[in-house]
């Protein structure tokens, strides 16, 4: 019998059914945790379930009556993972079904220093007129068994560096040395830019390529204000909802819908196992918040946290393959009183944990105190810092207050210290900010999170929205993507999505989809506003298809083709409607595009031409005869005030 284990940084197969390598996997609790923690972890690995959990899983008690409990009738009973080492994964979403008339294609390029052939993925959308459009693709390799994980794309790249015994493995280190790595070339092809430009941006700290050397599966991507705006998707289980199968399903849907990065924010059962199943099946960089697992190790008692427990958790997760860590080191003891007059206090989970620990012990934040040690760990794996905004505003009332900006200044200090270790950094931002206060956030981040001499930075900004109003519960993905588009237009590089479940509950796969689509719209709107080369090609293609009544092309060029088709077919399901010169909104007689085509046809048949000048001259209309005419720069007889 073979048992496949996903607890380590890669699956381990044991021929005799034993779990090989557990001693290595559990080094952190043997070194840093006490006897009670060891017993607790051992119980979890043996899948010992508490009586309360067993009761929650039973649909009926001994007398046959339905159990009335918070875990069953009141909030819906959770389906537990029967065997976390061998989950019963659902069928993966099908690429071709989600994106009709699309195929995955690869652009091949040779990394000249090593001779390595890189195959960079794109999604090719085939159009009915014989044309096609290639778009950025994050879906990863298709048809893989989740139990086996994804192919190890970067294995040979990483092995070469280890064989060279490089003193540091970060992309920032190589960029400063003038080296264009395979990751930089890969990301450059995806962005359609010169690889040297990517290297320069990384070397200057303005961009990062999250790429832990223990995550060979990921397809490299670049985050920075001078590249396309990226979108992050959060998921992860909680103590009352979800399981391993559901979280892997959310991952699969997230990358299919366009997530550039994902974060596993699990706080429930089997945190290391959930994380490792996600890591081995993710084609995009995976981030975490290590303080969550550290708190779980001490039984959820904040006061029992120690630097040693936190440090060992960071090492464990870096060894597993996490590519960026959110660490709330900017929540300093002196800043906590600044939140006293807030309407919602401290809303960051990690920030509140650090704040409570500091207040309980009357000590400085241990992550801040040991920042250089954290940098030394990150340096060895090439894990990027995502310096957390633990004091971000949790409502628009608290936006841009003293506590928020005090922490942002400290983020700048920590950024510069990390750069000294050649560690990649991005800064996290709010939160809840009304539209008129958004520019100030970007201005201060650009000023404070750069080197004092101006040669480095600013580091990429990574924001949660922000939400621009607070009373949109159930529609917070809309309220926040408005702020996201705005702040990205001002320079934010990575947007953390918000789902309809924000403030209400744990998102499911449908919520993940809605959040991602909203944020893909926000990111694209910012790309257009920032003049990103090629950003408008897809918009122009769908506009052309719309004007020519190529309905199938309209569906397939949209963000969610099946949704677009469903909305169209609700009123006009007949096959003939797919080529009809109208939709159910205007009908045939009132379709403006059909009428415009009639006008153009009439003009062509009567020799009027198609340009605005030739058309005017051909029909002998003096523009001054029009009531709405206003003299301007284009009128030779007019004046400009």
Automatic annotation (TrEMBL):
Q: Name one GO molecular function term.
A: metal ion binding
Ranges of residues in domain ThiC-associated:
99-163
Recorded hits in InterPro entries, A to Z, give: ThiC (IPR037509), ThiC-associated_dom (IPR025747), ThiC/Bza_core_dom (IPR038521), ThiC/BzaA/B (IPR002817)
This protein's cofactor list reads: [4Fe-4S] cluster
Region listing for Disordered, in residue ranges: 52-91
User: Tell me, what's a Pfam family for it?
Assistant: ThiC-associated
The biological process GO terms on file are:
thiamine biosynthetic process
Q: Which domain of life is it from?
A: Eukaryota
Which keywords describe this protein according to UniProt? 4Fe-4S, Iron, Iron-sulfur, Lyase, Metal-binding, S-adenosyl-L-methionine, Thiamine biosynthesis, Zinc
Q: Return the NCBIfam families for the record.
A: PRK09284.1, PRK13352.1, thiC
* Protein function: Catalyzes the synthesis of the hydroxymethylpyrimidine phosphate (HMP-P) moiety of thiamine from aminoimidazole ribotide (AIR) in a radical S-adenosyl-L-methionine (SAM)-dependent reaction.
Spell out the HAMAP family in the cross-references.
Answer: ThiC
UniProt protein name = ThiC-associated domain-containing protein
**What is the source species?**
Cyanidiococcus yangmingshanensis
